[in-house]
């Protein structure tokens, strides 16, 4: 029964937030945080139970699989549930102290819970069409969130975001329809079972291409990434931080989940396709990032670049590489969110997101400089910080599979990532405030304590990924092993 | 849009659409129909009336009257799921009851109908809100 909790709890809190419209601000905020804490608690409980029991399966409406809608949580789902609910919790804490863009409204709280409900649903969906529906729940909330505040610049970003995501949903649904006509089922376990029964006779090229198109736009991989940097820098900063940490990961998660089911061992075509996508995504993202001076745009291009590493794990599709990819997803989600939160703190202090006009943060606020330094190095993957373990496992996996070109591009991209992190460091932290900004009686602003605290929480999580790396890698390894053990998945859900 | 023709028609259309929407809602269990379509129909009827007699007061009054529907609808839909969890085997597990009404006979009622009514109310509330808000000039500053 606990499998339904990640969906029911946010829904209850949507209702609560909407019905508390007339209550005082303090009550609304307490309910908001209570919802986040409850969701984190549920996610951690699921992760613990999954680690003990392997799989948690529930059938909605008590209709047996493959006829009803299956909800299933395995270790990978548990990790993603915990990760996203933690990120949403910290960003919620941050958004309450942001004090701009009218974020402390019941509608905003309800939208955050809606987003969380959609993501949680996508993580535990055991049915492809159900997955699509949860994607839509998530997208509808994100459409409103990305236009939240109604600034003119947001209209531009929102149009791109909405159009691209609707087009991708169209491809996704078309792919699902074609898949249904080819296989006759949409239950993921049943799908995997029939694909294995047919033993390569089924031609799933058209549906997987269409579904890949749908996932590709949502997770912003090459060549469909251009909408992301164009729209992610427009909404209020807490929303950007939330989206950058979680939304693309849902696309990557679904991609790994879906292709691990229909992926047959020894299928060179998918391996090479995903590795090609991974390398091109990494390289194009990082090259475009290096030329940016708007810190949110720069970080957005980096999201694209780092999605490439996660896809690389899918392409290699060995136990080690998948472990690396999952670990990388964990590290990246935390660190990327934190970099956005820190850029918001920098904005509060210097009053600008433009790197050329900002500066002096290291002298004025050394503590924030330290927080940024740790996060930036963790993103690049300097040992012993969190990015290193993920990249190391991916590269080792690549070498073991003799994919040297892709290993080389992964290493090269790391250097360019270091370059652009150093650029933010130099421009915003190390150098002084430029002369022409100083003339108009410039003053440093103040960052509310709550903003800094949320960032500190994420840095602590990043550091604990280092200190607890053995424990975390073991969990990731279990998840990767479960992803490769399709027969076990089929057996648990279909009982055959 | 204050034209007499539309105003004359709008009263009749509103009543007709509301009645038909309930009909569509109830027939939805085994035949085409259901809460979503019924909600759209009901919302359409209310919106036509507001368009015909468009004043600022009517608009804000309608918006205020429709606001609770969303929450009530969500509560009913969630409640039907939780009932299935409490009384049955799983979330959304359909529970059926026989309701004896004197003189009229027995009614076969279940939680799927409750779910549909929740969807109906939520869709009506959201549709009316979205369309009426789109009628205002939105400023992107």
UniProtKB/TrEMBL annotation, chain A:
Keywords annotated in UniProt: Cell membrane, Membrane, Transmembrane, Transmembrane helix
Stretches that traverse the bilayer: 6-23, 30-51, 71-94, 106-125, 131-149, 161-184, 204-228, 240-262, 268-289, 301-320, 326-347, 367-385, 405-425, 451-473
GO cellular component: plasma membrane
Biological process (GO), any one: ATP synthesis coupled electron transport
A Pfam family matched in the record: Proton_antipo_M
Cited InterPro entries: CPA3_Na-H_Antiporter_D, NADH_UbQ_OxRdtase, ND/Mrp_TM
Family under the similarity heading: Belongs to the CPA3 antiporters (TC 2.A.63) subunit D family.
Name this protein carries in UniProt: Proton-conducting transporter membrane subunit
UniProtKB/TrEMBL annotation, chain B:
Topological relation to the membrane, as annotated: Multi-pass membrane protein
Cell location: Cell membrane
Transmembrane segments: 12-29, 35-59, 71-92, 112-135
Coiled-coil parts of chain: none
Keyword Transport listed: no
Keywords: Cell membrane, Membrane, Transmembrane, Transmembrane helix
GO CC field: plasma membrane
Ranges where the Na+/H+ antiporter MnhB subunit-related protein domain occurs: 6-128
Primary residence: membrane
UniProt xrefs under InterPro entries: CPA3_antiporter_subunitB, MnhB
Similarity comment: Belongs to the CPA3 antiporters (TC 2.A.63) subunit B family.
PANTHER family assigned to the protein according to its UniProt record, in alphabetical order: NA(+)/H(+) ANTIPORTER SUBUNIT B, NA(+)_H(+) ANTIPORTER SUBUNIT B
Protein name in UniProt: Na+/H+ antiporter MnhB subunit-related protein domain-containing protein
